[in-house]
Design brief:
- With 176 residues, the protein is mainly alpha-helical.
- It has a single domain, classed as Up-down Bundle (Four Helix Bundle (Hemerythrin (Met), subunit A)).
- Helix content is 73%, strand content 0%.
- Helix 2 packs antiparallel against helix 3.
């Protein structure tokens, strides 16, 4: 009977034996993710960035120029956004004060407020695009089209550093 009991014990232990293997697989998967996080915090080496066929690899000077442009643009946008939000807050505060204003004045104030809202939203969008480009440089995905996965092209990125689509995907998007 001990022989029959031994296989039963092995059957009971079989799932326990599989569980550590699953834990090991989970640890391995976690260990594989950990270096990816570390790599994401490091800035991409210029040679690691994707280029189109026939283009030369990114040089440190070219990448530094793009980074400088993006960082300066982001700083300028933050300042403009702060100023515009203060102006918009003033317009919103004064919007309820209608004493002595005729309809034309109210219409002009409403138009100005709408205009300022549009300007603030555009500045926010530009800042988000700029910060996204900086993040893509950091994680090494800068220069890869988000639609098709092909290289965007170094010359396009130098002309428009916030580009996330290659020229053909951008043209297709604009036709819609």
């Amino acid at each position: 009977m001990a022989k029959t009991a031994a296989p039963a014990t092995k059957k009971v232990e079989a799932p326990v034996t599989q569980a550590p293997a699953q834990k090991t697989a989970a640890k391995t998967a976690t260990a594989k993710k950990a270096p990816a996080r570390k790599a994401a915090t490091k800035k991409a080496a210029p040679a690691a960035l994707v280029v189109k066929e026939g283009e030369e690899k990114w040089t440190k000077a070219e990448l530094d120029e793009v980074l400088t442009d993006l960082n300066e643009h982001a700083a300028r946008l933050r300042t403009e956004l702060h100023d515009q939000e203060e102006e918009l807050a003033g317009l919103m505060r004064d919007a309820g004060d209608g004493a002595g204003h005729d309809q034309a004045d109210m219409g002009a104030t409403s138009f100005e407020r709408d205009h300022e809202l549009t300007v603030v939203n555009n500045a926010r969008d530009m800042l988000a695009q700029t910060e996204r480009a900086l993040a893509r440089i950091d994680d090494g995905t800068y220069g890869v089209c988000e639609s098709c996965g092909n290289p965007i092209g170094k010359m396009r990125l130098m002309a428009f550093p916030r580009a996330t689509l290659c020229l053909s995907c951008k043209q297709r998007e604009e036709r819609r």
